[in-house]
């Protein structure tokens, strides 16, 4: 039995208080994938949230890598993947840190909204 390693990501840039550009390796094709991610389960971000993310990433990254968590690769209405980042050693969460220090608020309906947007975006079937 093969035990899968956690998927890791590198933060390339913090674009907005809730949006990050990240890069992760895709082992199946042995290639890097860059994508935009939005912090899962958060809303009402302060402007200071952007610098708080940068500070947290610099403190918790392990040679530039953080553990990447997604919710079944769901995307929001802008096409950004819903993500959270964890410290590889301590498993501390970026989202938990931001909410705990009041840089943003908890959005319990974020995943539900993403699923709703995905269902509404489907094209009608031809008859």
Structure explained in plain terms:
This protein is α+β, with helices and mostly antiparallel strands and 127 residues long. It has helices at 49-60, 94-100, 110-120, and strands spanning 8-16, 19-26, 31-39, 42-43, 66-75, 81-86, 105-106. It has three helices and seven strands; from the N terminus they run ββββαββαβα. The strands form two sheets. The protein has a five-stranded mixed beta barrel. The protein has a two-stranded antiparallel ribbon with strand order 4-7. The radius of gyration is 16 Å and the shape is globular. 24% of the residues are buried.
Secondary structure blueprint with pairings:
Layout: E1 8-16, E2 19-26, E3 31-39, E4 42-43, H1 49-60, E5 66-75, E6 81-86, H2 94-100, E7 105-106, H3 110-120
Parallel strand pairs: 3-6
Antiparallel strand pairs: 1-2, 1-5, 2-3, 4-7, 5-6
List keywords for this structure.
two-stranded antiparallel sheet, alpha+beta, globular, 7 strands, 3 helices, five-stranded mixed β-barrel
Offer a concise description of the structure:
With 127 residues, the chain is an alpha+beta fold. 24% of the residues lie in helices and 36% in strands.
H-E string: EEEEHEEHEH
Tell me the radius of gyration. Answer: 16 Å
Oligomer: single chain
CA distance, first residue to last residue: 46 Å
Total number of β-strand segments? 7
**What amount of the residues lies in strands?**
35-45%
Helicity, as a percent range: 10-25%
Largest sheet: 5 strands, mixed, barrel
| Side-by-side strand order of the widest sheet | 1-2-3-6-5
Report the mean per-residue pLDDT as an integer. 87
- Flag low-confidence runs: none
SS-derived structural category: alpha+beta
